[in-house]
Every structure is written in structure tokens, then in C-alpha cells.
Amino acid sequence: MARPTKQFPERGDARTRLLEAARDTIRRQGFAASSVEDFCREAGVTKGAFFHQFGSKEALGVAAADYWAETTTAFFAAAPYHAPKDPLERILAYLDFRAGIIEGEIAEFTCLVGTMAQEVYGSSPAIRDACAASIFGHAKTLVPDIQAAMEARGIADAWTAESLAQHFQAVLQGAFILAKAGNDPAYVKESIAHLRRYVELLFSIPNKGKRK
Amino acid sequence: MARPTKQFPERGDARTRLLEAARDTIRRQGFAASSVEDFCREAGVTKGAFFHQFGSKEALGVAAADYWAETTTAFFAAAPYHAPKDPLERILAYLDFRAGIIEGEIAEFTCLVGTMAQEVYGSSPAIRDACAASIFGHAKTLVPDIQAAMEARGIADAWTAESLAQHFQAVLQGAFILAKAGNDPAYVKESIAHLRRYVELLFSIPNKGKRK
Lengths: 212, 212
Fold this sequence. Notes:
Two copies of one chain form a homodimer.
Chain A lengths: L13 H16 L6 H8 L3 H7 L3 H21 L9 H14 L5 H4 L2 H9 L4 H28 L8 H22 L3 H19 L8
């Protein structure tokens, strides 16, 4: 069942093949349910090569989260949502972009590090922290645009740009769970639509708008 | 390590003890990482008793999701957020209630069925469907209040009461993941605050308010 790497054929060394096998396998079936043998079979490498590269399943989990952070950072940095001149338009374009990439199998659009954090938060602080670095690191990339949009509209409310950026990630992570439970990607698009509407409403109100 | 049942001492039979042991163990460490031995040790019952009651680990997973649905349905039905006369106030009281029960250890306030759905959506349709029944069943309990609030304010927008109720669950599930990744329950309260603000804004706009 060896399978060539799908996204970076030029990086087909054993380490990268194992990282990509871990990414695909864990998204499909979770971290705990995946064995070192599963990763090796999917990557087409020996167990000797696995332990030479990573030393342990936990170390692979950390490396897979780091690799996820690295590849998704590059993916989002190159995405078209940064193009609009208005920062609010960039934020809305980000949400539209996130909705647009919800297609195909559930394992193909859901989040490796959200899945792993859910499973190992109590058992592996090392993997948990690597997942947190990826999730919160991605959230941070949205903060300058949110901050700029707040300043452009004179919004200084109880919420911060950072907390809104983190809320975006919460909505996405939770919508992935509904899609998994309900076996339907439409739940993700529905929740992103609600989130987009929230952003539109937040930024359409004047300074110190309606608050509890 | 046998432990008495915590919440329903009057129901301390082997089956209930196993269901509560599964609930507590899976919330702490996930479904795949939990063994039948773990459940038996936590419940203080023999493996013979386990297999007599459930037959398989997967059957226990389904029963645990059903038990979760049953106990949380009773818990939320008895909660005080149903008291306000105005349906919008009941919706906001629901969110305040959800924020108010975020305390203690992460395993004590996070969601059994969200965790299980995340892990087994691809490997166990039976558990996945039992998790879906719990998540979407709970969402359905909010629909009449949302519908009544929409009608009271003449709101007939692109969103439906059902989709907003499901979005509530997405926000909660995703906020649990951020709390696990960041090892801080504050992420849940922050996301619920954003969700509450969204509801306030949604229902403060006139009929056919600002939409994309």
C-alpha cells in the first residue's frame, strides 16, 4: 500500500513521506488509533527508518504538528485573500477563502492539529503545545488586519483583535466536528456564513456600539 | 482504583458505573487511547462484567454517547435559562449558562460526544451517529426559542433557527479544542462572549437587516 507523496513530490525523502503519511492517516482515523506500522505502510518506509527519523510516535506527533504549521503557513501566505486594499475586505476574503476550500473528503479539509489537540491534551504536553503553536500562530496572522479594520472604523470595544482571530479558529474547529458527526461538509460552510455575518455586523456598528 | 459513581449514587449498578467510567476516561484521554481495561479499572468491575453488559468496546462507545445524550438532556431541561418570558432572553440566558458551567478541569466541562465524533467519524459509523444524535438533538432544543425570537422581531433572513442552533454547538465544540490546545478554559468563555455578541447584533437589526 505504499503511496507516493501527493503534494510535494520533490520532497519525497523518508522523513517527509512519514510526515505526510502521519498527516493523512491522523486526519482520517486520529492519532491514538494510528500505529507506527500504519505510518510506515502509508509512507512506504521501514520501521527502522521511522525510528531513525523520529525515535518515538510522540516525537512524530510533534514533528507532524510542526510540519502542519509550516505547510499551512506557506499555503495561507500565498492565498489570494490578502489582495484587497481595505483590511475589513481582507478579513471577509479570508472567511470566503476558508469556505471555498471546504470540498472533497472530510479528512482532506479538516484540521490535523485540532484533531490531535482534542486527543492528547491530557497525555502529551509536547504534542499539545505543538498543536497550540500551529492554531494560535495561524490566528495571529489575522490580527493585523482585524486591528487595522478596527482602527479604520474607530472600534474600541470589549473584544480585541486577538480574541476575534482566536474565535475564528474556534468556529472552524467546531464546525469540523459537526461535519464529522453529521457526515456533511455543509455544516462548515453554514458556520462560516454565521461568522461572516458576525464580522459584518461587528464592523457596521459605530464606535462603542450596542454591547451588553 | 475503583471509584464510586459521582453523580448518580442510586444508579450504581455495573452498567451505569461502566458508562460513567467511559464518560470520564474518554473525556480525559480520548476513545482510542482508552482500553476496556481502563474502563473496568475506573468502574471497579471485571472484564467479564464489561463484555456481559456491552459485548464490545464499540458498543460501549454507542451506549456512552446515548447515556451522554440522556443525562445532558435532563441536565439542560432542568437548567434555569428557560425561565425568562422573552425568547431572546432565554437564548442569551442559555449562552450565559453555558459560560457559567465552564469551570474546573478541562475534562470536566468538555464534550464527550464531540471528542468521540472527532476520533471515530471514519472508523465507526455507529458511534458517529450516536454522537450526532446527541449534538444535533441538543441543538434542536434551542430551535423553538430562536424561532420565537425571530418571529417576535420580524426577522426572516438567510439564516434559519436550526442553522443558528447548530452554529452555537460548533462554537462550543471548537472553543473546547482551543481550551485543550491552549490549556486554558478562558478560550471557551471568550468564544461564548463573541457568540453572545453575534446574537445581540442579529436580533437588534430590523427585518431584512444588513446582509451581504
